[in-house]
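Re: your question from the hallway

Yes, I did run it. Sequences:
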Amino acid sequence: MTGLPLLSLAIWLPIVGGLLVLATGSDRNAGLARLLALAVAVAGFLVTLPLYAGFDAGTSAMQFGELREWIPRFNVHYRLGVDGISVLFILLNSFITPLVVLAGWKVIEEKVAQYMAAFLIMSGLMNGIFAALDAMLFYVFFEASLIPMYLIIGVWGGPNRVYAAFKFFLYTLLGSLLMLVALIWLFFQSGGSFNLLDWHAMPIPLEAQKLLFFAFLAAFAVKVPMWPVHTWLPDAHVEAPTGGSVVLAAIMLKLGAYGFLRFSLPIAPDASRELAWLMIALSLIAVVYIGFVALVQADMKKLIAYSSISHMGFVTLGFFIFNSLGVEGALVQMISHGFVSGAMFLCVGVLYDRVHSRQIADYGGVVNTMPKFAALFVFFAMANSGLPATSGFVGEFMVILGAVKHDFWIGAAAATTLILGAAYTLWMVKRVVYGATANHHVAELSDIGAREFVVLGLLALCVLGMGLYPFPFTEVMHASVDNLLKHVAVPKF
Amino acid sequence: MNEMHPLALYVPLAPLAGAIVAGFFGKAIGRAGAHTVTILGVAVSLLLSWLIFQDVEGGKTYNAAVYTWATSGGIRFDVGFLIDKLTVTMMLVVSFVSLMVHVYTIGYMAHDEDNWPADSLAGSHSYQRFFAYISLFTFSMLMLVMSNNFLQLFFGWEAVGLVSYLLIGFWSVRPTAVYANLKAFLVNRVGDFGFLLGIGLIAAYCGTLDYVQVFAQGQKLAGTTVELIPGSAWALISVVCICLFIGAMGKSAQFPLHVWLPDSMEGPTPISALIHAATMVTAGIFMVSRMSPLFELSQAALSFVIVIGAITAFFMALIAIVQTDIKRVVAYSTLSQLGYMTTALGASAYSAAMFHLATHAFFKAVLFLGAGSVIIAMHHEQDMRRMGGLRKYMPITYLTVLIGAIANAGLPPFAGFFSKDSIIEAVHLATTPGAGFAYALILAGVFVGGFYSFRLVFFAFHGQERFRQAPAHDSHAGGHAAHVAHEAHEAHEAHEAHGHDDAHGHDDHGHHGPVEPKESPWVVTLPLVLLAIPAIAAGWLIGPVLFGGYFGGAIFIAPEHPAIATMAKEFHGVLGMIAHGLQTPPFWLALAGAATAWYLYIARPELPAVIKEKSGVLARILEDKYGFDRFNDWFFAGGARLLGRGLWKGGDKGLIDGVAVNGSAKVVGWVASLVRLFQSGYIYQYAFSMIIGVFVLLTLWLNRA
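Structure:
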């Protein structure tokens, strides 16, 4: 912590490492590319650890700050810093990256170096999003992170990958163009500053706040994704390779939610309060409507994708009930969802690698041939259903408590996830894992090997650990969340 | 008060350690290792519970946090233990029955490999896995009862649900088992939905989830009104208590959330005894007793409780009459007895409910384990129509089951008499609105209880030996009465899994040749005998437990609910109670039920078939179990899928993608077809340079000026 630019390291180490991996060239050096990628990913995670160890939970101020001039003409700065809201996501992102590298170890046989590099570069860019305190810097990272994901889907994806990649790219790009307009307006309004903290403090008339709110909403709602701009996600997941799905679900969806906390709420607090009803309504639709839709999916990845949308509904719900149980619960839910949905997609990947089908109907009785895998899959399914002592419970529990406090019926609508979430997840488990061995594909399955076991086992430990002792997670959030809520409560026009 | 008993933590941790060792290292330690380590763990729990009981008996109460789980919104969520008389009673019951069941399992699961297809890896160490699960259950149940706050209560609540799910579906190759466990989990989740909302309201209005602090604010909750539906104001306390009780209705299988319990019989019999009779299903009863300081403040909630309990007690007993599967008879009997306990709660007779919980745990465990012993002897035949005359072959099983049946029927001087009679008397004296209705139902239920209990004994153990007959066409594989209901809608998707024929296809090896039943080994009969002793004698503790203030401050009863206090005044010792009991209707009703069973199943065994014939519709309704399963499958399971499909095809695909995104999607398609021409396969390299380029160009170009 002694002056090391930790945030810059977290951003640039994976990016530079990724370029090195890219430099290993063709698939003749695939082995080297894999090893190098793993080393870079692990190192990338290690450099983020001091961010937690050295984090001062007692203050809501930005920590580990870095400031350099970047484009003086427009007063754009390379301005970094983290608070209790963002720091955990940098750790989560850096933790997921090595797992993704491992998950693609054997399956990806073509363009290995490029594949690994894409994930490493994306990882660095996403760290940049969470650390940026300059709006232009944020925007550049935000948009740049689209490119690797676009490529991951478009190059290593399934048969319909080009359609899905474009849907993903255009959907999210169109959304963020409106945000760009908002950022430029704010730049002029603030007298030429891109500093987010200046914008937080700046008074803005209510009507303008509302326009800003909708501009940000366009960008972030697509990313979360919120109903009704969610239909790109199931397509993207279905076509993406396993690693792509993991990063998409575990990290990329969080970018939108994070945007609400960093932009919408503090910059347009009055509009946020005025429009909270809309956000709550959209969130509840996500929880309930999408829960029913998830129930009838025949494709495992689609089912988990819809389940993700439903779980992210909890996140946006938690934000807009404006109490600390809700906001902290939503943040916890975001982290937990990173572990759980990542693990669920990895589990589907394990099956897909062997049978080359994601259809539930093609499975049945997997436990008879893959008992170790089945145990882990059932465990993650339980976490996905919000079982206590798994991380999936913590956020849901806190958000439901916060929602009941806000309004009993909102809490009741949110709590239907207890039934719906269990129904769609466990019904899938029943049809895939349990029963008699369904066909010769299942009969010929081999259980997970050491590499797969390590990846899933690590995630299982995280899910269990966070479920049993979420204290270290909630503890770092308090000061920043309280400060944010205080800020939102005060009119600024 | 605010201290931790030095041994408390080890009570739940010992079985957890056993579960971990048997679960993760089952292959290495082998079968003997697995059952030794788990039995040891549970034995430690029992021993420590007994030591803690000594201290609590001496008048001490322990309440302290183990660690802080999380903090948020000004609420500290702790994991901690509250140990008083109520807790320690549950700890003793749970660890004792669990220990018995662990020992019994050695015998019951000895040939579990027969229950699996030869090539199933899931079956390869199923014995060890089973022990790991029941120890994990014991841990969860202990955490539930020892909790000092609502969070940990909910933890235990759902954790026992998880283990129940794993154990009902233990024989996962059977479609019926994995149908039943999903159903059990989801129905329980419906209850938990209410439960969690209740907890949410408590957190919102009390700002804490700690029992003692919440109870201290009971009056405040009673004084607050909320208008959840505009125009109708409710006392907050009533809303809270009813929400909490909905949780109890799920876990303790109260009408109309009872539907999962009969199906849970798909699990191996030891867990039917431990989880689905003696302990887990009584969690709701325990919970309401624990919350007596809240429930006592809400007349509305108590009325709700007493009515639900009475309906369950009577109507579930009726179904037991027509069951021919020996386990299902006991299952419906359990439902009915849980109804009795719930009725007692509604009558503010918490101690009577807890007392019946304890005696029931013993005699119902005996009945289940006895049924299991019969099932072993019959090579997994569960249909009583294929039994008969077993008493000669299995004298110990017969005797213990007879003891269980007498206790279950509530005949003196066995345990069930004292606890059941106290409930009936308390409901008689209760002033809760609905108590009159409840009294009539539970009184009628006594006759039914006497009948089905002895029907089981006579049907299975007396009369003609039917097990040598060739299998009847319709009685394969346990002949579940459920079949009758399911035939009507077999095409229904929900029942894809309900093919009973496949389900038991692999374990009906015993059905073909004649069976020569013999008494089960000692590991099976010893627990039966050890459980039969309290099934006889536990009732004699009624004086101190019910009327001697045994539960002390652990249970709160408002002065306007004097039923138990009145009974205490009239109580003159165990013998006096028996003498008095002989002059009251319950005794004669139970006896009449037993006599009817004797007449129908020993004196005139041809009669039941005739009666069934004549009573047409009535018998159909009972065999259909009032149509709940059919309705739930049609309305909830079918309806949810229909709705899901409608929202997906109509909403997502039709409106959003079809109408709103259609235009842009076309453009996308067009652009995509263009871009495809340029896709050389090396496009990613350009793209990566693009990212770098963005930074470099922006920097250079914009800094020019």
